[in-house]
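worker-03 picked up job from queue 'complexes'. Input manifest follows; two sequence lines, order preserved.
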Amino acid sequence: MDLNFTTAEEEFRLKIRRFLEENLPKSGLGAGREGREDKAWLEKSKAWQRKLYESGYVALAWPKEYGGQALDPVCQTIVNDEMVRANAPYLPGGSGLGMLGPTLISWGTEEQKRRYLPKILTGEEIWCQGYSEPGSGSDLASLRTRAEIIGDEFVVNGQKVWTSGAQHADMMFCLVRTDPDAPKHRGISYILIDMHSPGITVRPLVQMTGDKGFNEVFFDNVHVPRKNLVGKLNEGWIVANATLFHERNMLGSATGSEQRFNRLLALTKKIKRGGRALTEDAVFRQRLADLEIRVEAMRFHSLRQLTDQIRGRNPGVETMINKLVGTELNHDLATAAMEAMGDYSMLAREDASVLDHGYWPYEWMFSLGLVIGGGTSHIQKNIIAERGLKMPKSR
Amino acid sequence: MDFGLSEEQRQLKASAREFLSAECAPSAVRKAMAAQEGRLAEVDREIAKLGWTGLIVPEKFGGAGLGILDVAVLLEEQGYAAMPGPFLFSSVLAAYAVARGGSDETGDKLLRPLAEGKAIGTIALAESGDSLAPRDFSTTAIADGTGARISGVKEFVPYASLADFMVVAARGDSGSADLFAVDSSAKGVRVEMLKNLDLTRRVGRVTFDQAAAIPLRREPALYPRLLDIGAVAIASDSLGGVERALDMAVDYSKVREQFGKPIGSFQALKHVAAEIVSEVEPARSLLWYAAYAQDARLADAPRFASMAKARLCDVYSRGTDRAVLMHGGIGFTWEHDIHLWFKRARFNESYFGSPALHRERVAQLGGY
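worker-03 finished. Artifact:
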């Protein structure tokens, strides 16, 4: 047991901390997830990612030949922690960095890796994920977007939905049905689609937060070169699951939960009820302490997984629970803040009397979205029970 | 960065699992439950040979001199087996108090036989009202030469009738509590066993009437530290216990059929099982840190002892409730073993303070 980072790692931490202090964009890029709508935001965020990359702080663990630095997972963890601590803006290339990149590193051809990975790092190409469809949510493998092979090309027809960032994306990693006669898991392929191709229509959907964050994407005879297939034809389900594994680990950061708890505590110290701070209320203290204990448990849980990763141990059920536990914890933190604020919790961000800069109502809604996205809590529980506890399949 | 069990700790855990599944199966636990003393004498002899009884006893007194994280691993496995007997109270808590608080002479006299498995110690801390707070104590110690005389009544003293010596908390002059070692056979010590619902544990009431005592004052503020070690120890037992309850429920769900299918194929049961394991794994990580913080004497060790106690006991009680439910009617019978863990969870929950009490302490020590 050794919870210390090495001197070199501590120096690295100070270096990125200093870098963030000096270079964090001062305006126009909120750390919140809101406001990802216009072109100006996109250009500024891309510039931010490029700067971060050029300074050596993006995807540090990726292989050198594709623009990474082949560092161990500790350095990437330090960068992630410091970004959360500094309230740094989200990277526009997050889907490429967190989901497609690691998938391509394991499953892509040499040509695909050389073609796509460097531009993911620089933010030159923004990716979106084409998984869910109107008729295929939790039952993802029932998807019907069709890709027929004609000559050297796939011709794609169908529709995707809840596609975050499709309005800005240059590329999509997409699941399509290539064999409609095979059992549903065995007729799916994983392909890479240029979002600027003719026949693609992106229509924004407004989220309950009021933002246009996700979209419907329609495909009408969209031509995709065959070399854009990742993995084998009709074996895309395996590749898709690799991506989902990366996505689920991206959604619940323990450092983020810690930040939210600290913000919740600061808020409740300021709220007075019955002549005293809410933190002096016996019932609310119990709730705060329970939340803090859960946050701390996840902090050490992520250190445990980091250690296993360094040692090359295979992740088990302790990793399958991350998405379920992390996203529900964040929603519980936000819900506690909403209850603490009482009627003020339902004031819009623009209202002059809003508390804590209107952070919590947005967080309260968005965090529930993350309980759903990437596979709802119910689906996570099925996965944990079937794959982790080996309970019999129900389907 | 290296957060987790060492290779040695993993081996200790694996060998403990193997030993206890052979020697301390539910049928053996039931034998101890039916016996007067509430322990398995042959298992206790074997664990002394394995060196468990002296695991945290300093080497100079014949022990292995290992730490709290090491013993936490053993306690987890004992919780998994619902191992009956005084180990947690004797070889962990009484041993810890004497090793830290006693003179070399006291250590030699009490710990050497304890490490060899020839003597048993216990702790006598709580008083009427189930309070561990010194301000509620009526037990007093009066100086008597180099020793002291203790008078008062202690409740829920584990295996009081088996113990050769007891570590007793008594209020000193300053209003804080000091620890003393009392020979159980000394004049003025009277033991009356209570009837416990959790038959894997035995507790008694001990009345001290000017009983001769040896002060355990070598280290200051030992009493609150002993409570923290107790919290971590109970949390470790709870971790193993909830794992076992989950294993039993999941195994049963794979063989019991209703509506023509194993009940484990129904989402209602899957989700319950998934919720339990989702609470257990992060709690395990939390417990490792809490135990390590004691060994490394970190400033936040008391706070994390409370976090681990609150969380693991909540998770154990909730987990066994749900595990019983997953069994249906058979889970409510005396014949089925699940109630052993169900009751042990409740014992653990209140012993060394409820989750609510520990959450309040987390808030206080956290500055809110």
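worker-03 released lock.
Chain A touches chain B through 50 residues (CB under 8 Å).
The domain at 7-92 of chain A is CATH 1.10.540.10 (Butyryl-Coa Dehydrogenase, subunit A; domain 1).
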